[in-house]
Amino acid sequence: MQILATVQNKGGVGKTTFCRLLSEYLDRQGKRILGIDLDSQCNFSRRFLTMDLDGTDPDGVLPPIHPDYMDQEDQDWDGRSSSADIYYSGQAMPYPTRLKGMEILPGNGSLLRSVELVRAEDVKEKVHDRLDFFLTQDEVQALYDVVIIDTSPSKGPLTISAMRAATHIIIPTTMEPQTIEGLHGMLQLWRRETKRRRRGNELTIIGILTNMFRKGVALHEGLYHTLANDPGIVDLLLPMKLGQRIAFAESDHPMSEPKSVFDLPEKDPARLEAEAICNHVAEKLFS
Amino acid sequence: MSSKQKRFLGSPLSTEIAETIRQGQEQAGEINVELIPVTRIDVDDENPRRTGFTPQDIDNPEVVIGDNGNLKQIWEGLLSLATSIKSVGVQQPIKVYRHRDRFRIAFGERRFLASLIAGKATIPAWILQDKPKYLRNIQYIENVQREDLTTWERLQNVQAIKGEYEAHGGGEMTITVLTEISGMSRSRASHYLSILNGPEDVKELIRTGALNNIEKGGYLSRIKEDYKRIKAMELTLEGKDLKAIEEIIEGDKAGKSEKFGMAKDLVQPIKMGRPRTKVNLGQTANTQIIRHIMTSITIEGLDLPSNDSSDWDNLESVSEYWKRFLTALEQEIQQKG
Q1: How far is B141 from chain A (nearest CA, A)?
Q2: What integer is the mean pLDDT of B164-192?
Q3: Which of A25, A82, B297, B314 could bond A108 through an S-S bridge, CB–CB 3.0 to 4.6 Å?
């Protein structure tokens, strides 16, 4: 089972968009996918589930009642399950999605935020290692071919736990100074994590994914040129980019038709870019 | 336009990014050592190199040790290791692999148990991501490098490798395969396999520590005829070297057995185990023998059936009379003595 964490501590650079695209793409390839949303904003969850508003938390959402929940029989369960449960009870109940091969463990805003509040001396055992323990269980390993983890824009404990559990990471990046700083932050985290791995089992960087790229914008072109011409970086820079296209945002809208960019006309540039990236990532994951 | 574009070239961070990438690639796996709480570690029951102790035994080692000299020696080794761990800590990290939400020991059970004895809360460990595939082989290869292993422990390692190989459909373990897997020499592999496939009495000598030489063990195990092997084992226990033993036994091949007093009926099997505390009076189905002994010794107060009683034909009742007879005789001798 491959585990891909999408990480970048600058927000709004396309982590969730990429997770969603890759989920749809791999579903069409017949892969069995588990999506895990570790971002308390729960945007990845909302792409696949209709989340409930959390009455106790002004900016929070909750997973909906699980379709398998029977309130007569399940006395000890309130019917909701989220990625935060992995850190609290070690057990979680993924939700089916509209994609045949994909299940998701949605976020729970307030619970995920409180996971990050554990005391420093407990953080390793209670957060850093927990997702890894969960995903290395035989039952989980047997159910899925790939796990796609969306993380919050931070270098906090949940992101570290995602890196610890991951076999691969990908770092979406826009060609803007703040994002490049975020990229560096993630690479530092990766360096720390891979250093502690067994040789032969390093944390593989699939690459730096250039997102929202606008041709002709001097800043984008200039920074990309710099990274692409640095022999120490170019190998990690994915050879293809995702442009800034409204089609990616449109497909997030509930009224959008088609539901997926992969259902756009074959020659549609958004579809072509998404296919090129996802195909490349799939090859790296399963080669 | 081109001058404007150039303003954005050369982000100062790119040097740092490249450096971070380089370091990450170079240092991968470098510090895969963590301090793990000892409470989250289990011993691996399948490890042929088990000390025989578990964390639960630490407070009551005597229960495990009993009168087993090997275990006593291992326990004393653990105590002395614990003393050194108390003063300088565990110098060489142990290796563990994940098992559900706990860790199992791949290598380093002694260091782990000694840390418990020393009262340590954590132990440095390399965390292997998976259970090593040929765990026993690796454990074996680790173990042959150690000098403090008993021959019996080494033999058990090879037994485990053999078992694992055969269980995975490798067919019967051969000298060639064992040589390839373990890296030991062909002759050594041959001795190990001879012992493992050989008679129990040689294994018993090794288990009790009476025989500590694999070469001798292999030689003894290859002697097919029991009486010759038993003689050779006796010679071994007398401390004869292999060449001398071979000369004597090979000499026997040439029909010189009489010279060495090796009429096979006379050679008694060597008894292993606890020292004798009693004489076994043997068994017989002929009750007349018993009657003969019992009636020829007069013991006061012991009533025996008359000579023509049918009790003398009944094994049950004769056994019962025999028991009483022995007890009464013991008492009488004690009183007189």
Answers
A1: 19
A2: 75
A3: A82
Q: Residue B13: its chain A contacts at CB < 8 A?
A: 180-181, 184
Domains of chain A: 2-65+80-286 (3.40.50.300)
Q: Does A137 touch chain B (CB under 8 A)?
A: yes
User: A227 at the B interface (CB within 8 A)?
Assistant: yes
In terms of C-beta density within 10 A (0-12 exposed, 13-18 middle, 19 or more buried), how is residue B204 classed? middle
- Burial class from Cβ neighbours inside 10 Å (0-12, 13-18, 19+) for residue A54 reads middle
Whole-number Å distance between alpha carbons of A258 and A241: 22
Distance from CA of A228 to the nearest CA of B (A): 10
Annotated domain spans of chain B: 33-132, 149-260
A168 residue type, one letter = H
Quick check: B28 contacting A, CB < 8 Å?
yes
Query: Is the distance from CB of A18 to CB of A175 less than 8 angstroms?
Result: no
Strand order in the sheet with A168-173: A95-96, A102-105, A33-37, A146-150, A2-6, A168-173, A204-213, A237-243
Provide the pLDDT for residue B257: 44
Contact B9 A222 (CB under 8 A): yes
Least CA distance to A184: which residue of chain B? B17
Residue A260 near residue A20, CB atoms below 8 Å: no
CATH of B33-132, one of 2.60.120.260, 3.40.50.1110, 3.90.1530.30, 3.40.50.450: 3.90.1530.30
Give A5 to chain B, closest Cα distance, Å.
17
**Is A221 in Cβ contact with B4 (below 8 Å)?**
no
For A119-138, write each residue's pLDDT tens digit.
777 787 788 889 999 998 88
Q: What is the CATH number of domain B149-260?
A: 1.10.10
User: pTM of the entire structure?
Assistant: 0.54
Cα A185 to chain centroid, rounded: 17
Distance from CA of A222 to the nearest CA of B (A): 5
pLDDT of residue A4: 97
Task: State the complex-level ipTM.
Answer: 0.75
Strand partners, A209: A172
Q: Which of A195, A203, A219 sits opposite B31 (nearest CB)?
A: A195
Quick one: pLDDT at residue B273? 53
Partner A contacted by B22 (CB < 8 A): yes
> Is residue A282 very low, low, confident or very high in pLDDT (cuts 50, 70, 90)?
very high
Using a CB–CB cutoff of 8 Å, tell me whether A89 touches chain B. Answer: no
Is there a contact between A187 and B21 if contact means CB atoms under 8 Å apart? yes
